[in-house]
Amino acid sequence: MLSLPNLLTLSRILAVPILLFLLWPGVRIGAPSPLAIDYALAFGLYCLMGITDYFDGYVARARGTVSRLGIFLDPIADKIMIAAVILLLVFTRDIDGWHVIAALIILLREIIVSGLREFLATLQVSMPVTKLAKWKTAFQLLAFGALILAGALPGQEWIKTVGLASLWGAAVLTLVTGWDYLRVGLKHMD
Predict the structure, then answer these.
(1) Which of 32, 96, 137, 146 could link 163 by a cystine bridge, Cβ 3.0 to 4.6 Å?
(2) How many CA atoms lie within 13 A of 73 on its CB side?
(3) What is the 3-state secondary structure (H, E, C) of 18-39?
């Protein structure tokens, strides 16, 4: 249980409340919304979380220490991180207006695919992650990172534009990969 990959995964889960604290409006007395320094610290933590997401799997495969606990926890850590960041960025209005639709598409797909994977696991059918799904994840990570960084650098409007464009790119890939997974799953539902 206490292998390095599992500890990296657990650290990602434990970092989520710290990220929420950093970006929660009104945490600082007299500050109705997070300050640029809060966003900067949150961006650093978010990057660290992304790095641990990559390295937990890499280290587990490289060392031959892939565990059932890691297989169980890694997707949960990913979903917790993505859901928390989406909800927080909507709450802070870093994602607002029509852009909330893109965020909802991503959030709903995460829930649907998780349920589908759980259902298919009972049938002993595996759904491997596709290359397109990895691109979707890359767009998500870029989008959320850019939107957090935009709060740290409010004078650099282009960073938010990159974040929102990446958010929509992730939403489109989310629909495509979600449909692919759903199509595979529907074949096993009689």
Answers:
(1) 146
(2) 22
(3) HHHHHHCCCCCCCCCCCCHHHH
